[in-house]
Every structure is written in C-alpha cells, then in structure tokens.
Request: fold
Amino acid sequence: MLRKKSNQWPIYCPSLTSLCLEILTPRLDELLKRTPIPANHPSSTAVRSLLLTSLSQARTLTLPVLHSLISPQLSNLPLPFSTFLSSEDHFRTISRYCPQLTSINLTGIPMNTNILEIFCKNNPKLTSFTLSRCNVVTDDDILLISKSFLANLQSLKVDECYEVSDAALHHLSQYCANLRNLSVNFCQYITDKGLKSFTSSPILLQTLEMERTSISDSGICNFVMSNGAELRELKLNGCVKIGDTGVNYIVNYCTKLTRLELRECDLITDIAGRNIAQICLNLQDINFGMCKPLGDSTVQYIGYHLKSIKKLNLDRCGGVSNLGLSSLNKCRKLKELCVAGSTIDDQGLYSLFATAEGEVLKPHNFRVIDVSFCKSITIEGVRMLVNESKKLRRMCLWGCNVPEEEVKALEAMRPRILFLRTAQINSIQS
Reply:
C-alpha cells in the first residue's frame, strides 16, 4: 500500500511481487539464462523460493525454469500441479540437487512408488510431505514414507488420495511419533478403526483434517481422549456421523483448539454449540455452515464467551435470527461473518453496530460479510453495513433483493469493496 500525506486517502496498487512476476514470467527462462541468480548472494535462497512458490501457484512453472531455480540451499520445494514433471529422471535431478529439503509439495502430480523412493532415499531431512490429489498413492506408499522418515516426519497431507485407508493411519501411528499435522480430507475409506490406531501411540497432533471421511462419534471420542491434548485445528466438515456426543468429547479434551470446522454435521444441536462456546475459549475460527439444528442459543453463547473470535460461518443454520446476531456486537475482533440463508433483516444487521438501548458501538473490523439469500435484507441494510465497516473488502449478496443500480453506486463510493451478486452472473450469461 502506498500512501500520500496523512490527510489524504491511501492509494492501493497490486502487490509489487505479483506485478513483477506477471511481467517476467513469459520470458523468465531467457532472463535466467542471461542473468542467473547468484548462488552465494544472501537473498538467493529467498528469491528462488519466492519464484518457485509464485510460479507454481500460477501454474506457469516450466522444466527449464525449475532447473534454473533449484539449488542445494533450498529447504522448501512447492511443485503443485507441475504436470510437466513426467519422468523419474526429473525427480531424481530435483532430489540430487536439493539435499537440504525439509518440505515438498507434489499436489496433483502423477506419482508412483519409484518416485517416492527417490525422495525417501536421497532426502532424509524431509519433515513435510504434501501428496494431495495424487490419486495413485496407496497405503503401501504411506508405509514407505513412515519407515523412511520415522520420527522426522511432522506433516503429511494426502487429501483426495482415494486409495488411502485405515491401514495408512496404522502405519503412521507405528513409526511417526513426532507427527503433528495430518490431513486426509475426502479419504472415504478412513473409519473409526484408523483413528483407534493412534490411541496406543504417543502422537499428539496439532492439526487434524478429516473432511468427508467415514468416522463417527465413537472414533473421535477415543482419539481425543488419548491424543487430543495438543490439538489446535480440527476439520470434520461433512462427517455426517458426528453428533453432540463427539463434539462434547472434543471440547472437553481439546481445550487448546483455535479452529473448529463442523460444516454439514447435521446431528449437532445447540447443546453442543453452547458447550463449544463455553469451554473452548481460545477458538478464533468456527464453521457451523449447514448445521441446520443450530440457532440463536449457540450464537448468543459465542457472543458472550468468545469475544476474540475472528471468523464465524453460520451459513444456512436454520435457527439463526436477529436475536442471535445481536449478541455478536461485542465480538470486536470478528473479521469474517457468514449468515447466508438465515432469516435476519436490516434490524439484525443494525444490531451488530449498536446495543438494544441504541448506544452506537465502535466500528467493527469486518473484512468479509456474506448475507447471500437473506431475503429480508434491503439496500438500506447493505448501505449501513458498508458505511459502518471501514475495513470491509468483500460483501456477498447472492440472491438478495437489492437493486443493481444502488449496488453500483456503493461500488463507486467504496471501490475497494468487492460486491458479489447474482446480477454479475446474469450479465456474463447475456
């Protein structure tokens, strides 16, 4: 952000790094050949890591550029979706030239056991493996990684590796005593049996992501009783067998939680919601989206007990109304709020910024607000949100009954806010 004098509006520009990369990327191979990055320069490794990360994220990394950027000093190698890496020789070159690797991201790359063996043999310092969307990864591959890195392995992500099952968790529990972060989202063959493997191991995970797996209350209860003391982040979205019993065990044994995601867990009621707010006082990020039984009671407890919460998703929670929303006016650190599909109206929005007695509170720190499909909200409520939220950057208005002309006027008044709405799709289709 560039600023003029203090009494003038700030001028915003795109990230300088992003701007430079956009200009350089088409000719980066040629530029690196003409002017290589100095090997011994103090910033050399940082520059190489930045270029690799940015080009990988933009999916513009090529094999010649990769060869120009890898160096013996690199410790982090992000190569997601680098499908040009088509032969084992490519990986052998990377492994040989980067002996200091501690973290590698191979998301979406066609993998096989031979490729994994290359890294297991040549890169003993690896502590973090990301193999998400590598569909051919199996339980045997997890066994290979577990035996190769043993206690060194601290982080493993195998999201959407559909052949991974309970056996993989058993291998990890046997060999990887220092595992701290595990992500097995969408691995449908993982059940309570897999979680039970951890109960006899010393592993104390800090992050566990198990979205849309086949676990139930029984599995999560056994796990948190023995291995939940250090858990900070837990993601159980779409685990439809999780209910109040499992959640109550989570809140009693995982008191250090800062992020809890329970989206689409329809068995959860306000009883569990209130317990979460009362006991897990360190929570800063909660996702209750599409937990239809939850209502105002849970939201009121959140407003009373979790004053430091920063992100709250109540998307399509059927019982949330103005009454619950008004209790959030004391959560002054709340930056992202989603109440899409609820029955709130303009009065509910106003209650975020004033007490029942009419006392106007200090402006919120809202960056993102989603009121999509809240049919009772009018342009007056939207305008009030915009005026009272000085740091707002995105507002979702999908399915809201607000005039397009009025929204365009707000866009002109606050150009730094991105307004997402149905009219944009209609204009594209036409």
